[in-house]
Write a sequence for this structure.
C-alpha cells in the first residue's frame, strides 16, 4: 500500500502462515510507495507475477487492492488468475492527491471479473479513510463469485458504530531470563482507558 513495505502490517505474519502449509508466497516490495504511480506498479506486478494462471492468488491491502484490480483489468482476454483477497481496499478515489493517478479512468469491473476466479473482500466498518459499500453477490458451487446486475437500491453504506469512542492502552511485561524458575514467573501490567 501507500508508504508500505513487505515488513509492514500483517504481511510477514501472513507469509509465514502460508509457508507453514507449503504455499509458496512472495511479498512484493512495490516501487516508489511514497509517491505511487499506477503504471509503474502495474508494470512491476506483471514482471513479478509472470504468466497469469489459475494457481496464482493475490492479496492486497489498501492501495494494493486497486493496484490488483488495475492489474486484472490489464490482462489479455484469455488470461485469468485463481483469486484475490482485498483487505481494507477501495476502488474509488478517496481524495488523497498522491493516489489520484489510480483513478484517472473508470475501472472496467466486467473485465476484472472475467480475469479472476474467486474474490474475497475484507473491510472494516470503522476505517477512517475508506468508505465501505455492500453489494449483494452469489457464490457458485465452484467457488466463483457472481454479481447480479447492479441495483442501486441494494447498495448500503455501512454505518460506523464506534467512531465516537477512543481507546488507549499501555502494556508492560517484566521477565527474568537464564533461570530455571523464570519459566513460572511473569509480571505484567495492563492499563486501558476508553473515552468519548
Amino acid at each position: 500500500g501507500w508508504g508500505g513495505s513487505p515488513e509492514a502490517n500483517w504481511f510477514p505474519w501472513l507469509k509465514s502462515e502460508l509457508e507453514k502449509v507449503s504455499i509458496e508466497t512472495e511479498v512484493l516490495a512495490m516501487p516508489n510507495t511514497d509517491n505511487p504511480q499506477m503504471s509503474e506498479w502495474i508494470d512491476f506486478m506483471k514482471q513479478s507475477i509472470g504468466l497469469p494462471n489459475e494457481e496464482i492468488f493475490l492479496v492486497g491491502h489498501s492501495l494494493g487492492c486497486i493496484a490488483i484490480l488495475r492489474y486484472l483489468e490489464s490482462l489479455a482476454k484469455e488470461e485469468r488468475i485463481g483469486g484475490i483477497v482485498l483487505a481494507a481496499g477501495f476502488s474509488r478515489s478517496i481524495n488523497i492527491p498522491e493516489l489520484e493517478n489510480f483513478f484517472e479512468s473508470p475501472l472496467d469491473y466486467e473485465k476484472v471479473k472475467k480475469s479472476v476466479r474467486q474474490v474475497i473482500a475484507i473491510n472494516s466498518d470503522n476505517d477512517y479513510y475508506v468508505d465501505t459499500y455492500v453489494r449483494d453477490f452469489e457464490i457458485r458451487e465452484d467457488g466463483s463469485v457472481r454479481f447480479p446486475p447492479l441495483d442501486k437500491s441494494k447498495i448500503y453504506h455501512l454505518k460506523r458504530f464506534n467512531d465516537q469512542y477512543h481507546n488507549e492502552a499501555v502494556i508492560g511485561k517484566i521477565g527474568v531470563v537464564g533461570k530455571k524458575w523464570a519459566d513460572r514467573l511473569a509480571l505484567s501490567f495492563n492499563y486501558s482507558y476508553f473515552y468519548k
Helices lie at 11-20, 38-49, 63-74, 109-114. The CA atoms of residues 133 and 157 lie 5 Å apart.
